[in-house]
Amino acid sequence: MELFNEILDKIDSIVWGIPTIALILVTGIILTFRLRGLQFRKLGLGFKSLFKKSEGGKGEVSSFAALCTALSATIGTGNIVGVATAIAAGGPGALFWMWLAALLGIATKYTECMLAVKYREHASDGHILGGPFYTIEKGMGRKWKWLAVLFAIFGVCVGLFGIGTFTQINGITSAVNNAVDPSNKHIAFELFGNSYTWATVVSGVIITLAVALVIIGGLKRISKVAEKVVPAMAIVYVFLGLTVIIMNATAIPEAFAAIFKNAFGWQAAAGGATGWVFKQITDSMQKGIARGIFSNEAGLGSAPIAASAAQVDEPVEQGIVSMLGTFIDTIIICTMTGLSIVIAFYTGSQPSGAGELQGIALTSAAFSKVLGGDGQSVQFLLMLCLIFFAFTTILGWDYYSERCLEYLSKGNMTLVKVFRWIYIIAVFIGPYFTISQVWTIADITNGLMAIPNCISLLALSGVAAKTTNEYFSKYKTL
User: How do residues 2-17 score in pLDDT, each as one tens digit?
Assistant: First the structure.
């Protein structure tokens, strides 16, 4: 098992090395300049357009439902567990790199979703076919079809082995176990030297059955669940996070100081540890950007698959709405988690750091420490939020993976239906991987999926800028 972990860590360090990080950041920077800072100028328009009724646009679901479907896949363990994991591994500075990646990623999210609507196709039965694979093939030309195929292969892998199954179900069962049986007294069985409680087993089975009941219904059933669950649970979690921050408002300046000092290695530099500074910065940057991409999926190429199904005629309209996903996911929800952890463990007269805590246990400990009390009510609320967030993420990524497989199989729906059952099996076995293994596998598959998508966005940045300028020239009052 140690050898397997070492192999995973080695692959992860290669995939998430400086080249991949640079590619994602450069893509966001170039798109920000070519779109003239659209994510700052038109963010308000996005919120204004959120509930705008579709007027005869071609598509399967409303713009709001498409955004909720995308958010259902992004608001999940990345917001509660992923942020905690990043801070535990890279320090509080990881939160800064999450913010930076998100601010640039809003432009990236706008572009990839807008282009997905621009280049989408309609299947013979009426459902929409769209996503980076069609953007690459139709936008860059058929000679680049190999890049589209590569993206679709990685997309299936991310859903089956990364964001879609293992991390989500593992996060759910860990949260349930942390709330119900934190001392691990009720062991069901042991596997590869690890013990698993009845809380883990039972919650894993229940979630697997619930997933099976929903995903068999396809996109419309998934979007209906997402429209109801995602906004409600986001409001609950934001309220909980705001309560923590407001109750400790005096600690916010010190928390921001800890974040920036760690992000740029100022404390180490002041202490003369120049050899350690670069490692601290790169670790913080890698964990922050990797977890940021995991959480908001900007540049990953997943959200465009949902956006392409929106009932709109103007690609820019959906791009404007879709870019809100990154803002809501990272700038709002991830910040709630991150600031709470930094305030709890990295501020005060004797900052303790995260110690041995990780995942949901770290977030729960931070909220409980700041709010006080016995911590059980906080654990229960976090458990509920994580269960619903992660559950909808599982549903959303099944849809993404199916569309990738549909592209690869040239519309073979029999193969897609078989895949659904394989996906359900992956959800079932997910609880029995360790947290480190699960997140490393997710990081690897995410990075591989982002590479072909970012290449296409850079190649089509001129098309994106031209389409955007034409739209706002046509509607000058917006």
Answer: 777 777 778 877 777 7
Q: Select from 95, 73, 74 the least CA-distant residue to 366.
A: 95
Question: Model pTM?
Answer: 0.82
Question: What b/e sequence results for 208-221 when a residue is b if at least 16 CB atoms lie within 10 Å of its CB, and e otherwise?
Answer: bebbbebbeebbee
Bin 184: left if φ > 0, else alpha if -120 < ψ < 50, else beta: left
Note whether 32 and 39 are within 8 A (CB): yes
Q: How many CB atoms lie within 10 A of CB 126?
A: 8
What number of residues does the chain have?
478
Residue 210's closest CA among 424, 438, 432?
A: 424
Cβ atoms within 10 Å, residue 476? 6
Cα separation of 459 and 138, whole Å?
A: 12
- Biggest alpha carbon distance in the chain? 66
Cβ contact 440:8 at 8 Å: yes
- Is the pLDDT at 106 greater than 60? The verdict is yes
Beta bridge pairs of residue 191: 194
Sign of CA dihedral 297, 169, 444, 256: positive
